[in-house]
Amino acid sequence: MRIASFFSFWRLRAAAHRLPEPAHVPRPVLSSGPDMPKQDARHPSEAYSRLKVRFRDVGRMSGVIEALGRDFLTAMPEGAYKSRLGQISFLFRRMHEDLIDKSVYEDLEEAINHETSFPGQWDEWDRANLREMEALYLQFCHVAPELWEKKASMSYEGRRVHREVLAANDWEAAKDFLQEQIDLHKAIASARRSARPRSSGNDSGHDGEDRSLYQYLLEEHMPGMTVAEVERLFDGYEKEIEQIIPAVLERQKKSQPPVPLRGHFAPEAQLWINKALLKVIGFDFSRGGLYETGHNPVEGGTPDDTRLVIKTADSRNFLDSMKSTLHEGGHGLYIQGLPRKEWRYQPVAADLGAMVQESQALLVEMIIGRMPEFFAFLSPRLEGLFQGIGDPDLQAGNLYALKTHVQPTVDRKNADEVTYFQHVLVRFYLERDLIEGRLTLDDLPDAWAEKMQKYIGVVPKTPAEGCLQDVHWFVGKFGYFPAYALGHMMAAQIYQAMERDFPDIRSQVLRGRFDQISTWLREKIHSQGRLIHYNALLKDITGEELSWKPLLTHIQRRYLKLS
Amino acid sequence: MRIASFFSFWRLRAAAHRLPEPAHVPRPVLSSGPDMPKQDARHPSEAYSRLKVRFRDVGRMSGVIEALGRDFLTAMPEGAYKSRLGQISFLFRRMHEDLIDKSVYEDLEEAINHETSFPGQWDEWDRANLREMEALYLQFCHVAPELWEKKASMSYEGRRVHREVLAANDWEAAKDFLQEQIDLHKAIASARRSARPRSSGNDSGHDGEDRSLYQYLLEEHMPGMTVAEVERLFDGYEKEIEQIIPAVLERQKKSQPPVPLRGHFAPEAQLWINKALLKVIGFDFSRGGLYETGHNPVEGGTPDDTRLVIKTADSRNFLDSMKSTLHEGGHGLYIQGLPRKEWRYQPVAADLGAMVQESQALLVEMIIGRMPEFFAFLSPRLEGLFQGIGDPDLQAGNLYALKTHVQPTVDRKNADEVTYFQHVLVRFYLERDLIEGRLTLDDLPDAWAEKMQKYIGVVPKTPAEGCLQDVHWFVGKFGYFPAYALGHMMAAQIYQAMERDFPDIRSQVLRGRFDQISTWLREKIHSQGRLIHYNALLKDITGEELSWKPLLTHIQRRYLKLS
Predict the structure, then answer these.
(1) pLDDT tens for each residue of B35-67
(2) B77 to A289: CB separation less than 8 angstroms, yes or no
(3) pLDDT tens digit sequence for A49-59
(4) Is B24 within 8 Å of chain A by CB?
(5) CA of A538 to nearest chain B CA: how many angstroms apart?
(6) Rounded to an integer, what distance in angstroms lies between the CA atom of residue B517 and that of residue B526?
(7) Are A8 and B209 in contact (CB under 8 A)?
(8) pLDDT surpassing 60 at residue B346
(9) For B74, which residue in chain A has the nearest alpha carbon?
(10) A205 shares contact with chain B (CB less than 8 Å)
(11) Which B positions 326-385 lie with beta carbon below 8 A of chain A?
(12) What Rg do the C-alpha atoms of chain B give, in angstroms?
């Protein structure tokens, strides 16, 4: 039953009533000023100033998506799953619409012309920012928004699907979803290719430019990287490492096996030491945190809100949660070190892609985090924390032996530092063949087993040990795997340069002093955002472009005790 | 130093190169189908269908803002404060731009015409939804987006400012910020007024329609409520309650004072009982949760993701965290019960405003949550949880005495159920005078003391005990306070109807059986969203429109033991 008098209050409509027209909404504009950060400062090119405003909004939406994504894995109740997927894909659609608005296209053209005509008015950061804006536009301009929405939604759905099929060891159930992901990413890659005019010829790659579908997926994760470059580095390294692995295993047979961890390591204590180690390496807890999840570890966020998410600790083995923490911690330092004051939300302030990200993670987790000096620092503190003074499993030498034990295994996540590369190599070959249509999902399990046998000498007994183990393809990360091995190479190359710059680096690690290390990384890498290409960066820091040789040297030193 | 070959890869620009134009982005459209929820179903009016798409986006953005707001108070690191403010105000700006787009104005006009011309094609839900869309448009169409952005940003900033000035007892520091909030809200109210054409005459209110600035703020929180109606209800109730308070205090002097809580009540145990009580009243933990914060309690979210946030427990007093839990729990039941399957994200699926929200919170916290039967259910379980069988402070009678003890105090948050009304009355008068310009902030402390003396008989000794105590004005909530007292009246009126419908309600509460109660609330109130005006709802449920009489009867029964 209705109350007419109140409804006349609500419904202000008489026969002749008209709604008021809306007020005009002016677009935000930038202004000039002496201490204004570059991100907010007006530029002589009006078109570029307008682009900065637009990309600032895109960056904000990206930051919001990051926050929703972390929350998804931690505090969000299960029943909110579907609506959260809807919110995230909705934001992606909006971001996409913003990026490919006609005015972006027009402003980019105008700004590019201005840069060409008045180069003196463009410093290197503005040039780089404009270049990154252009690259983002090209990434999206021919990809239909619904494809991107689908990609976003399926990436979160994929996490859940993967958890289910892995637990159920059900390859058949996985195939349909994976096929959908493969088809979607081939469509996205194809759309990106059509946005890129050919320098000449056709798509076969014979004109020197790689126009394979896999190339377009690879470069989304690793800007500036090519499939040919991956092949060059991988071929070179594989020839060497395949000789070294037998030598390492032989040598290892002659030493005492390490003492396995025993007893109970309370999850709260693990959480404490993990947070403490993050503080030691320089992670800023006022701008980030360590959280636990039932899902796989992940990190993400913005420089002010960097959230590292690791799996809930297993009380039988503290090295697992510590490994994840160190790995995510390396990522976290990078994110926190990005140029947030001057370039927050602008494309140039992004990290340099998956390879450089993984280089930071692996530098901390594998290179530094497995040094004898690191364990010498850690061990006495563990003796106190876990109340086991003199416990054989907690001794520095034993921890070192545990973490440098080489054991070919079917499980990539638990691979040792030496055979780590092989796991990546196998996945690189297989995912490239899947995307290029040279391999079907029906044939994948056999192809997987065949390559595992060839490169690692082990064979999975179940799909869970085989092609179901990784979440990457389920969340749509094709062209990502190479980043781990390339990042490992880059980490070793960087560490070599650090050793040259601080000859006493080992004694610093021994004393738990990371400030010089983290400052060096921040100044030389993190604070550069996307200013220059990774090879220019490496040339500046190490004297040469990316090479597999420093990693080989590192492996030989650590695992064959060669100098 | 740059690597030219890679830059030619990145910079695809030759002298004659042109960027590809972007692909066309079609707007999403609705479709028809037999089991399609109303929110997604196409309607004979194309304009209304377009509006549903647009408001769905607005609803999603609102859901995202809710998630970011909860995270702000719980998991977010402190250093992300500024950038989170930026993200939230950015989303508000986008939502605002969406709401006042020219096409919304045009589609509303067209849909309204369709409804007038073809009433048979509009069921009551679609009519209500259209009406709510119109109301939202009117709320925003003349408010400049930067005002709304500022409102959003200052609401979060206000939380932090309040915490600081309250801790420092610093009224002078508070005044500037409060003045900014008052000026901002006067500007917003004024803009809203200009969107509403006068029925006749001027803004003085003599034509029967209240066009005071305070009215426009009040109705944002309580749609359909008028200042005159608030005055009518408050005047009627105040005449009675001011006689009753002395009688209650007299009667209380003759009974034993309650035994204060003593000992230690572990925060983890409190968290457990609070979660357990939420489950008892029917809160669904697959679609929500209970979280702790250092800030004031708050609730919010969407029907799938309803987060109740209470202050970290004080181990000396479990009744505080329990009170907050029950209060937020009432809010939470309402949010979870909204019509999410059929009308998710549409305006008609929103709650009926602050008064009705507070009625649900106070029904659980004060009416049901302070019944002798509730304590009889609770007490033995507390004896087990806190390990104190026979402890005098935990006895049902004692808990009842503690929670129904009447004690005039300066502190609204700890006010007893009887003098609760006076606290609201004082704030109603003062905030109205502040907004209408009849009272300045310089004069507020004296005015506050004068009214506290008049209505409650106590006087604050410091600003922290006085006008600094509430967060509401700091976060921009003007026109909200009346909702507490009106909600209390509505809660008592609803409970009266429930007693009529379930004569055995007391024995249900005694046994901890709330399913009949929560089902009744969901069917009669929560699931109705904004279908009908609150007075139509009350008429349906209780037989009469909102009245202060049921609350008076309740107070007399509980505090004077009258029937």
Answers:
(1) 788 888 899 999 999 999 999 999 999 999 988
(2) yes
(3) 999 999 999 99
(4) no
(5) 11
(6) 12
(7) no
(8) yes
(9) A75
(10) no
(11) 344
(12) 26
B143 to A23: CB separation less than 8 angstroms, yes or no: yes
Which among A127, A136, A124 is positioned nearest to A61, based on CA atoms? A136
CA distance to A48, B150, B209, B477, per residue, from B147 (Å): 27, 5, 26, 15
* Res A210 pLDDT > 80: no
CB contact under 8 A, A6 and B224: yes
Q: Which of residues 2-21 of A touch B (CB under 8 A)?
A: 2-3, 6-7, 9-13, 17-21
Shortest Cα distance, chain A CAs vs residue B376, angstroms: 32
Q: Phi/psi at A247 (nearest 5 deg)?
A: -65, -40
The overall pTM is greater than 0.90: no
Does the beta-carbon distance from A22 to B135 stay under 8 Å?
no
Q: Place B203 in a pLDDT band, splitting at 50, 70 and 90.
A: low
Residue A184 near chain B (CB below 8 Å): no
A289: helix, strand or coil: strand
Q: Nearest-CA neighbor of A266 among A395, A386, A394, A381?
A: A386
Quick: pLDDT tens for A232-247. Answer: 999 999 999 999 999 9
The CA-CA-CA angle for residues B31, B32, B33, to 5°, reads 130
Decide if A108 touches B, using CB distance below 8 A. Answer: yes
Chain B residues close to A112, C-beta within 8 Å: 13, 19
pLDDT band at B321 (very low <50, low <70, confident <90, very high): very high
Q: Does A207 touch chain B (CB under 8 A)?
A: no
B75 contacts on A by Cβ (under 8 Å): 70-71, 74-75, 289, 291, 307
Is the pLDDT assigned to residue B314 strictly greater than 70?
yes
Q: B524 touching A, CB under 8 A?
A: no
Between CA B358 and CA A120 the distance in angstroms is: 62
Cα angle B463-B357-B517, degrees, rounded to a multiple of 5: 130
DSSP at A365: I
Output the six-digit token pair for A534: 């990774």
Q: Which segments of B41-101 does DSSP mark as H helices, in order?
A: 46-73, 81-99
User: What CATH number has the domain spanning A206-563?
Assistant: 1.10.1370.30
Partners of B305 in the β-ladder:
B302
Contact of B53 with chain A, judged by CB distance below 8 Å, is answered with no
CB B530 within 8 A of CB B350: yes
Q: Which residue type is seen at B116?
A: T
pLDDT at B11 over 50: no
Count CB-CB contacts under 10 A for residue B246.
10
User: Quick one: closest CA in B to A96, which residue?
Assistant: B25
Kindly state the tokens that stand for B379: 């007490």
Average pLDDT estimate for A410-419: 95
Q: Which of A71, A110, A190, A287 to mutate to test the interface with B (most CBs of B within 10 A)?
A: A71
CA A203 to chain centre: 29
Q: Which residues neighbour A116 within 8 Å (Cβ) at sequence distance 6 or greater? A: none
Q: Determine how β-strand B305-311 pairs with β-strand B288-293.
A: parallel
pLDDT of residue B121: 95
The domain segmentation of chain A, as residue ranges, is: 3-141, 206-563
Which pair of structure tokens corresponds to residue A11? 């419904």
What are the CA-CA distances from residue A334 to residues A129, A145, A287, A328 (Å)?
Answer: 19, 30, 13, 10
- What is the secondary structure of A70-87 as a DSSP string? HHHHTTS-GGGHHHHHHH
Contact A87 B64 (CB under 8 A): yes
- The widest CA-to-CA distance across chain A, in whole angstroms, is 97
Would the CB atoms of A18 and B109 count as touching at under 8 Å?
yes
Phi, psi of A505 (to 5 degrees): -60, -35
Residues of A in contact with B12 (CB under 8 A): 138, 196-197
Q: Which residues share a beta bridge with B292?
A: B310
Contact between residue A517 and residue A330 where contact means Cβ atoms under 8 Å apart: no
pLDDT of residue B385: 94
